[in-house]
Structures are given as C-alpha cells and as structure tokens.
Amino acid sequence: MPGRDHQADREIWRLAVPAFLALVAEPLFLIADSAIVGHLGTRQLAGLGVAGVVLQTITGMCVFLAYGTTAAVARKLGAGDTRGALTQGIDGLWLAVLIGVVVTVPCVLLAHPLVQVAGADAPVADQGAAYLRIAAVGITPLLLMMAATGVLRGLQDTRTPMVVAICGNVLNIVLNLLLVYGAGLGIRGSALGSLCAQLLAALALVAVVVRSSDGISLRPDLSGIRQAARAGVALVVRTLTLRAALLVTTFAVSRTAATHDSHEQATALAAHQIAFTLWTLLAFVLDAIAIAAQAITGRALGAGDSAAVRAATNRMVWWGVVVGVAGGVLLAAGSPLLGALFTDDADVRQRLVTVLLIVALAEPVCGVVFVLDGVLIGAGDGRYLALGGLLVLAIYVPVLALTVALGGGLAWVWVTFSVVFMGARFVVLTHRARGDHWLVTGASA
Which of 74, 274, 311, 360 could be 154's S-S partner, Cβ–Cβ 3.0 to 4.6 Å? Predict the structure, then answer.
C-alpha cells in the first residue's frame, strides 16, 4: 500500500508541478506589460488596466477549451483510442479558432466602447482602446494556446505547456522593451509585443499537437466541433458562477465602506485587493493538483477502472488538504509582514492581517474544493458542476447582501466568502464525490 501511494504521488506531482508553473506564467504576461507601460504614465497604465479587464473576461469565459479538452482527450487515451483522443483534440483547436474569430472582430471594431463600459473616462479610454485594438488580434492565439494545452494535458503532458509558457513570457518582456522604448511605439508597442509572443507560443503548442497527430486529418469536422461546443456549455456556466461570486464579493467590500469617507473606502478595497491576490496565488497551487486530477480521472475512467479513480481521488484530496494546511500556516505566519510588500499604508496593513488569518483558516477547505472540482471536470460531470455552481451562488448572494446590510465590514465579507461560498461548494462537491453517478466509464462520458 505505501508503495502504491508513493507511485500515485509521483504521478500526481509529475503532472501538477509543471501545471503550476504554467499557471503562474499566464498572469505574468499582463504583469510584465504593466511594469513596462507603467513608466510611460498613469493614463497609459490605467488604459492597460481596463483593456486587460476586457481581455481577461473574454479568455476567462473560454477556459473550458483547456479543461473540457483535457477531460475528453484523457478519457479517449485511457480507453486505448489514441487516434480518437487526438481527433477530439483537433476538434477543440478548431473550436478555439472559430470562437476567436467571432470574438476578435467586434473587439477590434468596438474597442473604445468596450473600455468605456469597463469604467474608463475619455483620456484613459483612448489609451485602453489603442492597446485593445491590437491586443484583441491575439485572442485567437490565446484560445488556441488554451485548447492545445488541454490536448497535451489530456495526453498526460504538462511539461510542454510549461516550457512554452515560460519562453513566451521571456519573449514578451524582450519584445515589449524593444517596441515600447526602442521603437518608441508606446502602449501600442506593448500590445504588439504581447501579440507576437502569444502568436509564437500558440504556433509552438499547435505544432506539438499536429506532430503527434501523424496520419490524422487536420481538416475541421463540423460535427466534432459542435460536440465540443455542447460539452463546453456546462463548464461556461460553472465558470460564470465562480466569476460572479468573486465580482459580488468585491462589490460588497466597496458597499461596506461606501458610508465612510473616501480614505476608508480606499483602505478597505486596497486590503481586499492584496488579500485576493494572495488567495489567487494559493489557488494556483491547488488548481495545479486539480489539473492533475482532470488528466488522471479522465484517463482512468476511459480505461474503465473505477477503483483506480476512487483511490486517486482520495489521494489527491489528501494532498489538497495537506497543501491547504501548509499554505494556511505560511499565510498566517506571514500575515503581519506580507502587507509591507504591497503598501506603505499602515491602515491597509493592519486590516490585511485580520483578513489573511480568515483566508488561512479556510485553506484546507479550499484544498478539498479545488481538487474535487478537478476530479469532476475530468469525469465530464460538467452539468452537475453548472447546477451546483448556480445553487451555491443562489445561497451566497443573499447571505452576502445580509452581511452588508447589517454593517459587516471587510473582515465579515471575507468570513462570509470563506464560510458560506467555499463551505457551500465543499458540501456540493463532497456530496457528489461520495456517490457513483459521476463514475461513468468508457471512451465518452
């Protein structure tokens, strides 16, 4: 038994560690752009910020291209149908192209109105629109990167996406510096540099998939693309419920401080933003285990081995709890010091300590939630995840509204998020995992 656990652990971390590094590399594209554009001026940086919100919203809604493709390809691979796995992957790539083209055109043509909707005034909107008109052309490469990454993860390869993500980030920094300052293109140079880096990264990942598909038709198959799109609808709903919860949480923080002066509101929002940034970093670690869970679960169910799925799920949940506890302990221990990395404002740092202690206490629960979410995605149980997400949101929003109405401050908003939202997700996911309805074996869910 210990030997079997050791073998399972090696497989989990073989997939999870590169997945984590690739996940961390993704937001570095925008961080690098921000660091470089920030020296051009405040308006340029603000314009980049609102344009980034538009782009992240679009790509965030399309994360199913990675998650759904991982599960479908892994299941076919486990069933011994490598050719079918790669065919499914090719369908995912074509779906990414189709969505990318449909979304890119209006983003380019309506760049200025879109950044205004995101909250930019006229001078900032001009800068944001200048960035978005160029960067929007990179939406299709970004979606292709997601889909190709999903194919490779389904084939149990998380190392290649990691290498491409790291190389893409280095290239992005070099091109941004050359085009923004060397060529004097300003914020447009930043958009162009990111576009070139994303395009080359997408070509590299697609080339790896195509090379693996020797003898398989690369032409678009409309029925396969439609099937991939239908399978993605449930995951889109799931993603929308998660993003809606995060959005209303930030809105609640803003409302709790709205009755005070502008400094009080700014202090609360600043502490919330720092706490959310650190929560997201810990989420990347847990999401890496979830990605391993998608690949392992899909492959084992495809092979018809339900017992192996149960054993792997228990082991990954155990690791989720361990990582959650470790992350929580580190966060709690560092809570008095971490604020200094982000701000010199003593009031923000003081508020942050309390919030980080709340986040730390909830991390073990987050570990279970993230892992089981990945397991059920790998099992193709998207419909349950969508319905569960809607149920959790229906519970969370009224309780959060009550918290605000009763005068709860920043700390109470985070208590509500940790206990009600994450707690409800914990109940919904563990209830499903205990049953057998999601354990559908065979080449398709």
Answer: 74
